[in-house]
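Supplementary notes for students who missed Thursday's class. We covered one full example, reproduced here. Read the sequence, then the structure, then the short commentary at the end.
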Amino acid sequence: MTLTQRVVGVLAAAVVALAGCAAGGSAQPAERVELPPGSVPEVLAEADGVLVGHRRDDRPGLLRLTPDGQPAEVPLSPATGYGATASWYALTAEGGRILGVGGDRGGAHGNVRWSVWTGDAGGVAERVQAFSTFGGWGAGDLVGAVFASGGPLLVGSWESAQAGNDVMVWTAAGDEWSRVDVAGTPLESTRTTLNFAVAATRAPGGALVTGWQAGASGQKPAVWRQVGGSWQVTSLPDGGRAGIALAARCGPAECAVAGRVDGRLALWRFVGDRWERVAGVPEIPLGEREPVAAPLIVSGGALHIAADGDRVRAIEISDGGVTTRAIADVRGPVRALVASGADAYVIAGEPAQLWRLPELLG
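Structure (token representation):
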């Protein structure tokens, strides 16, 4: 080996070492969770353990991970043809209750035929709704299911009386769901501002909806927060020329949002009484159709897991700044993220797989 080759080798080793330090040291280990043969995970929910909404043999299924990490089937009872072939769009759990949204395309126009599922770990059933509840001329999408402080909510969109679509909320009376009148509230679109919902989560005082607003100043990331039964809308700061808030999670006193600004990953935090964009987030390209998981609220801050090309990173956010760490073996895109004790679980990859990240939060 020549002197030049030795120098190049030393420099390369130093670069690798420095890169490892910048990314938070050694890679976070990951363990693949073996699901039943043919199962493709679609959504996750935090429960007494972890709930996994999956699809197998062109039918929906629901699994609960036992304390030892083994998947146990939760009986699922479809009531319609579209429910029997649905994919999972949303899943949430609280206090032993489970609420989910499924959908499958059909009919002359290929629209999504929505199904609502409720139950507990002993079994979850589709609750049949009138066609006009989620379908018809004014129908939009369903994007989220939330156990809010005032009761369960479904969130999506519906034809606006003024312009475009409104952000729409459905509430339940027993097993029957109905739309809320959003006229005159921040959920309603106007001739100057169009509202678009992407996802929803529980928040202190109610619920939080993520999405964007389109108007004369362009496309801005926005969140709608339910407080005491009324709604407030906030345009997230530093939203660039084209921004969108894609997914969120809240704790008792704060929230974290993941989104896209001008084609790059963006993160925001709500702490105290205001939103702020997180500085120092890695410059990660994010395509328009690329899925994004909701960040976790952790002690002292938040944690997000994102695909950066073929790699996957854990991005830790605290008042002291942002640090990143590579996650071994897992490949993108990242579709869902939940916590279970000190462990985190993610759905990632193509085809999608379920991974356990042991002691990531410990």
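Commentary. The chain is about 10% helix and 55% strand. The first strand starts at residue 31 and ends at 32. If anything here is unclear, bring it to office hours.
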